[in-house]
């Protein structure tokens, strides 16, 4: 009997070893309505290009979840629309670009700025039995350049999200959604402040559109 008990324990340990640390896929997909302000803000009278390359879209990130497991997701693919939406609230027109344009191409398209985001994320969970992350963090840094490639500003925003088990059992990426919403909602003000400081120093402050 004792031998059988050891065999069962060994089998259980092997099973735990095989499955612990595996990466579960989640999608960061906050509802668009949660990203849209009730009142449309004044927009800067400028056309900008949002650069997210195909390599960025396919980039997978793996961070800790609960139960010793990890979560895998594609932050640039998932956050492309939320960032685009935030820029659309900030500027008169936003053009999606798959690569950084040359100066000639940027000017031909009438771009005032070219914006390239950098996204970093963190996640964690104290749970030992469930894998979805209860806490998630998003840091979003946007490099704003002029058509020649000169960096004008680098506004940075952060967001954090928390979700308990009874909340995320129907949305496994809920904490990530909440972190994204918090970060993206901060982006328009951060960009306006960064451009206001930068353009004031250069004597060419951007003007809001006339409505």
How does this model look, in words?
This protein has 211 residues and is α/β, with parallel strands linked by helices. Helix content is 39%, strand content 28%. It contains seven helices and nine strands; from the N terminus they run αβαβαββαβαββββαα. The chain is elongated, with a radius of gyration of 22 Å.
Question: How would you summarize this macromolecular structure in one to three sentences?
Answer:
The chain is 39% helix and 28% strand. It is an alpha/beta fold.
**Count of helices?**
7
- What is the H-and-E element order? HEHEHEEHEHEEEEHH
Low-confidence stretches: 1-20, 200-211
Number of strands: 9
Mean pLDDT metric:
86
Find the structural class using helix and strand composition: alpha/beta
Detail the topology: elements first, then pairings.
Elements: H1 2-19, E1 23-25, H2 32-35, E2 44-51, H3 54-58, E3 61-64, E4 70-73, H4 75-90, E5 91-97, H5 103-108, E6 113-124, E7 135-145, E8 151-153, E9 156-162, H6 165-168, H7 174-202
Parallel strand pairs: 1-4, 2-5, 2-6
Antiparallel strand pairs: 3-4, 6-7, 7-8, 7-9
Task: Give the tags.
single chain; 211 residues; alpha/beta; six-stranded mixed β-sheet; three-stranded mixed β-sheet; 7 helices; 9 strands; 39% helix; 28% strand; disordered N terminus; disordered C terminus
């Amino acid at each position: 009997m004792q031998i059988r008990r050891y065999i069962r324990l060994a089998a259980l340990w092997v099973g735990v070893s095989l499955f612990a640390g595996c990466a579960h896929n989640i999608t960061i997909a906050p509802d668009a309505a949660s990203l849209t302000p009730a009142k449309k803000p004044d927009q800067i009278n400028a056309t900008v290009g949002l650069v997210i390359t195909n390599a960025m879209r396919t980039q997978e990130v793996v961070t800790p979840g609960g139960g010793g497991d990890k979560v895998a997701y594609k932050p640039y693919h998932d956050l492309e629309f939320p960032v685009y939406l935030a820029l659309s609230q900030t500027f008169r027109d936003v053009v999606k670009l798959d690569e950084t344009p040359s100066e000639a191409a940027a000017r031909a398209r009438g771009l005032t700025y070219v914006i390239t985001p950098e996204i970093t994320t963190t996640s964690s969970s104290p749970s030992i039995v469930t894998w979805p992350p209860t806490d998630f963090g998003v840091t979003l840094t946007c490099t704003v350049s002029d058509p020649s490639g000169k960096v004008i500003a680098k506004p940075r925003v952060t967001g954090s999200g928390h979700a308990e088990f009874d909340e995320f059992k129907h949305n496994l990426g809920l904490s990530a959604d909440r972190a994204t919403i918090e970060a993206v909602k901060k982006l328009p003000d951060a960009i306006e402040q960064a451009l206001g400081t930068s353009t004031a120093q250069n004597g060419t402050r951007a003007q809001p559109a006339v409505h």
